[in-house]
Recover the amino acids of this structure.
């Protein structure tokens, strides 16, 4: 049955219109499409038109008689937020390591001693499908409550074919049953299994010859990701893994230059990655190669914040012409959060981004980073009616007030799934 919904008279409606063909770069990142007193007409889960309330109500007078109306007066409406880099599916938590880091140990030392990613891998391998599903669903609910309507989710805590597939299947089951859309990424190359740490090339061969072909054959992932970092996967191994993914139709992404400068940005450009993520230590040459190759920088300020590191230089990347997206990097070790709005605060306060740029970075540019910009990321005719309404009158409030959740209403595919800040 066709349902008509009208979101009415938002004090500001941010459309993000006209960036769907390619990601916004440079000054285009500030072009967020503000409509004061904006309304959105939705039919059958899709956007029909966005515009001034007066104009829309006049134009669609007859259709509006039967419409469900959502009053957004005094509130801010934006495209549903998109988180383009999460490790959603895992078991357990690592607060013990947090205490160890506060006492002076480093993230990589903990991992090299068998903790870190290895600790979560043990917990995830041990967990049954039901436990993994329930723990991950609770996190997905939190994302939705923070205004997120599309999320990327990586595997990478299985590290064997069986357990990587288990993680990816849980992500698919969540996608089938939850309002939030999930784009899956295979990340078998998240770490070399601890027991095999002296035989990295043997594991790389398994990722390339066994895991990637089978994950692709089962249609379980869109992207293929690798943790390119000293002590994890070398640039050469990363290239090999990402090229193998491409041969099987998996689009490349890369965890690049997080802890040390390690040619990650350069590998991203060489392989034609959709995005390179982290980039705290990316070289100037790597950044310009990314700009030339059109690789999106997915910046993860929560990770720098939580690991107490220097933040990525977003200004430098922006000025070089790299498209920027922002993400939580939600995971149990380096960024245990579900708040994309907090990443917007950090983007402004710690990475030199403007309030307009951070909005672009969590909507249309994030949509490009997950290959979904033709369907989501902006409020334009024909796109999915994914809209977040915040209990603030101006978009500046989102990156000004921090540590708060201003989400009032979330509309997904035209259905209200959060109302008054509560899940329906
Ligand atoms: N750096 C590699 N992977 C994750 C962290 C995973 C973990 O610590 O469990 C990240 O993106 O930060
Ligand atoms: Zn990550």
């Amino acid at each position: 049955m066709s349902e008509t919904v009208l979101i009415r008279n938002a004090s500001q409606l941010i459309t993000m219109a006209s960036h769907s063909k390619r990601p916004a770069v440079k000054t285009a990142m500030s072009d967020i499409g503000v409509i004061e007193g904006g309304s959105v007409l939705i039919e059958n889960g899709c956007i029909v038109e966005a515009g001034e309330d007066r104009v829309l109500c006049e134009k669609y007078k007859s259709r509006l008689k039967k419409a469900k109306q959502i009053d957004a007066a005094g509130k801010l409406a934006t495209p549903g937020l998109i988180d383009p880099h999460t490790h959603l599916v895992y078991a357990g938590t690592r607060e013990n390591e947090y205490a160890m880091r506060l006492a002076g140990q480093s993230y990589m030392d903990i991992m090299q001693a068998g903790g870190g990613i290895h600790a979560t891998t043990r917990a995830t391998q041990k967990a049954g499908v039901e436990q993994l599903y329930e723990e991950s669903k609770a996190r997905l609910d939190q994302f939705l409550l923070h205004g997120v309507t599309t999320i990327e989710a990586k595997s990478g805590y299985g590290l064997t074919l069986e357990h990587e597939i288990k993680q990816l299947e849980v992500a698919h089951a969540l996608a089938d049953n939850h309002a939030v859309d999930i784009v899956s990424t295979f990340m078998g190359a998240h770490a070399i299994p601890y027991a095999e740490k002296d035989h990295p090339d043997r594991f790389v061969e398994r990722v390339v010859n066994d895991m990637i072909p089978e994950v692709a054959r089962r249609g379980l992932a869109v992207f293929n990701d690798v943790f390119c970092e000293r002590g994890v996967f070398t640039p050469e191994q990363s290239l090999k893994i990402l090229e193998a993914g491409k041969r099987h139709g998996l689009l490349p992404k890369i965890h690049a230059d997080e802890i040390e400068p390690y040619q990650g940005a350069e590998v991203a450009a060489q392989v034609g990655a959709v995005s390179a993520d982290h980039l705290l230590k990316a070289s100037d040459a790597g950044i310009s190669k990314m700009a030339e190759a059109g690789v999106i920088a997915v910046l993860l300020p929560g990770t720098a914040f939580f690991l107490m590191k220097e933040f990525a230089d977003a200004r430098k990347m922006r000025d070089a012409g790299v498209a920027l997206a922002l993400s939580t990097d939600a995971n149990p070790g380096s960024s245990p959060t579900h708040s994309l709005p907090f990443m917007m605060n950090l983007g402004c306060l710690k990475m030199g981004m403007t309030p307009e740029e951070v909005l672009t970075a969590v909507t249309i540019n994030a949509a490009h980073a997950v290959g979904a910009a033709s369907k989501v990321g902006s409020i334009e005719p024909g796109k999915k009616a994914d809209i977040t309404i915040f209990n603030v009158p101006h978009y500046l409030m989102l990156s000004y007030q921090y540590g708060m959740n201003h989400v009032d209403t979330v509309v997904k595919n035209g259905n209200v799934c959060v109302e008054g800040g509560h899940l329906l």
Summary: The pocket of N-(iminomethyl)-L-glutamic acid (ligand 1) is lined by residues 87, 116-117, 120, 227, 255, 258, 303, 329, 331-334 (CB under 6 Å). The longest helix spans residues 200-217.
